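thread from #wetlab-drylab

HS: before we spend reagent money on co-crystallization trials with pyridoxal-5'-phosphate, can we at least see a predicted complex? here's what I'd submit
DV: go for it
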Amino acid sequence: MQNELLNKERFMQNVKDNLKTLYRRNMDEANPQQIFQAVSYTVKDIIIDQWLATQKAMDEQDPKIVYYLSMEFLMGRALGNNLINIQGYKEVEEALKDIGFDLNVIEDEERDWALGNGGLGRLAACFLDSLATLGYPAYGCGIRYKYGMFRQAIINGYQVEWPDNWLKNGNPFELKRAERAKEVKFGGYVRWENDEHGHSKFIHEGYQSVLAVPYDVPITGYGDYNINTLRIWDAEPMNIFELESFDKGDYQKAVQEQNLAKNLVEVLYPNDNHYAGKELRLKQQYFFVSASIQAAIEKYKKKHDDIRKLYEKAVFQLNDTHPSVTVAELMRILIDEEGLPWDEAWEVTNKTCAYTNHTIMAEALEKWPIELFSRLLPRIYQIVEEINRRFVLEIQKNYPGDSKKIEKMAIIYDGQVKMAHLAIAGSFSVNGVAHLHTEILKKKELKDFYEMMPLKFNNKTNGITQRRFLLHGNHLLADWISDRIGKEWITDLTQLSKLKVYAEDKKAQQEFMNIKYKNKERVAKYILDHNGVSVNPRSIFDIQVKRLHEYKRQLLNILHVMHLYNVIKEHPEMDFYPRTFIFGAKAAAGYRIAKLTIKLINAVADVINNDKSIQNKIKVVFIEDYNVSNAELLFAAADVSEQISTASKEASGTGNMKFMLNGALTIGTLDGANVEIVEEVGIENAFIFGLTADEVIQYEQNGGYNPMDIFNHDQDIRKVLMQLINGFYTPDEPELFRDIYNSLLNTHSTSRADTYFILKDFKEYAHAQKRVEEHYRNQKAWAKSAILNTACAGKFSSDRTIQEYVDDIWKLKKVVVDLDKK
Ligand SMILES: Cc1ncc(COP(=O)(O)O)c(C=O)c1O
């Protein structure tokens, strides 16, 4: 134990004291939730000292700070992760065991902090972990949604959304910082008047205000750790006390402001890779951006007079376009409040903002109608107009007479404000999130911007934290690795390459497969408890867990399962290695075809799991409410990782890396970071199939392909497709899956058929799955590949990603914390 407060007796004494103060209970009277709270407060007490020390060191060393601005932080649970990072997990586990409590059960009392949709939000969480571990000064800036990502229930095979009241029992780790509250203004109008020097001054009037109130959460790094801060903003009304005393007009305004504050942070929009264009969403964006930028500038000004040098002490990283209004908000503060002339303000802004692009999916691009944008943010809109005017002049200078360029690149065009264009124009760095993705940005999606300003563009392949997704999620494998190569991998994942020598070692292979087996047993129990389905841990665990999206092609997976079922029914004598197909996915609440796909998976599961004649050769399981916590269990238990997106569509993926780290073999397309995974582990240790990104792009440019050719010529596919519309899986509702059938063959619609090339890739996918089976039958060959997957995952640590951001974009220095100075 590193920290004296982690001394077993002392720790438990503090837990007991906390139980008394919080609940007036003794240990033997407390329930697991109360123990969870008391343990968490005890851990927070330990962390607080280091947190103070880190803040103090930051104050003294006055380093440059990265502000990671993100609408989403998909943190998962805090207690277990904090214990891991302060290196007290095993000690606390033992201490609790001594008094009859299981730490796993206590951990289960914590609700996930699901302030995000999927990959993008989880990336932000991994980055915070790495920043703290590496000792770089950082703030995560986001929103304290009252309701996070919805809880998914499966009722009669359908997804039902339940509110995620994650704060119901309170959050033991957060600190309200009322003294740091900031005013954020919406609506109204702008006029200007001349000041005493004859300069025009903008006056914003008739607006509604809310008070942004920050809650700070400690982010523990691993080991001799720094503690950084995640600052999430809550909204409160400005004038809460004075309702009665207002005259009629003001009363109305006060009520409106109360409602605004209440609605603003009520709920996270549950769309992944899809822009819904809701006014409240733009309000949320401006709300947390304005509060965060105000706070950053306030911090800077405490120590520095010259606002023109802000970029020496602050960098704002925009996690996708969601916070790109930062560019205009910073300009507003620099011009209207700090009095800088436009050119100087623009230079500061351009040296302080950096933008990460996360997708090329057209439906994810944020574009706001001018009417909405200017009504909600009148002064910000004026500034965006001027940024646009000057940017268009620059385009004209570079491409005289080429109006097409303006059409494609302007920030305001066709009645819309294009947020990606604003982010690119206002940032000094634009990065993609995997090599292939960045290349597609440069060659296709953002080609014009790249050609005009090539130096801005760079790649930062995503990463994941090994602390949560191996050390915490897979204790058995973590211990096995540490026994062989020491513990350095925990903070230097490239050390895993030392495991390569064990790939052909019989004993190591057996141990590795035994660990996998135990993790599969753990998931089998989870499935029995949650789904009431019994699965065989000796079967191949083939897992696809991620958001449900057509481009991610869960449909390809389930159509293939339907095909396998047909084959087994037709050839009962056939030798087939038992397989458990596990799915987990939330669909956006309004995404009809995605929700129907969930129903299809469950309908297929119902039929197959209850067909005794196939002797359990296939089981299909849909994990309800896929989230970070059950993800940790699933990654540890996977034999096969399904990464089968239509090539070119998945920017990076991070689930793919988590599976690899835990020794699963990838079946996948050459998309996103899969390309780099295969580069690291070798194509012989993965199962790659399907169209390449170039081929997909070619087809798209030529108007697609004709899936009817495949339907007409391929009997297996035809049979599966007919089962979608002949009631094979839902005899009471034979037409239920007609829309899925139509999306593939498009017999009634004018849009392109099989947009995601599912039928085009089907045969190759089926063939790759055969190769999976053959490989698995040779347990030694499989074990070798599995060990190599873990051994070659070193590149995919978010520690590496963060170091690259630091070296190439942020230029930060580490903060050295002296713990005696707290
Ligand atoms: C809960 C959750 N959702 C979504 C994702 C992203 O998955 P993918 O990269 O496969 O889209 C992850 C990644 O770990 C996750 O834990």
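DV: The first helix runs from residue 8 to 23.
HS: ok that's useful, forwarding to the group
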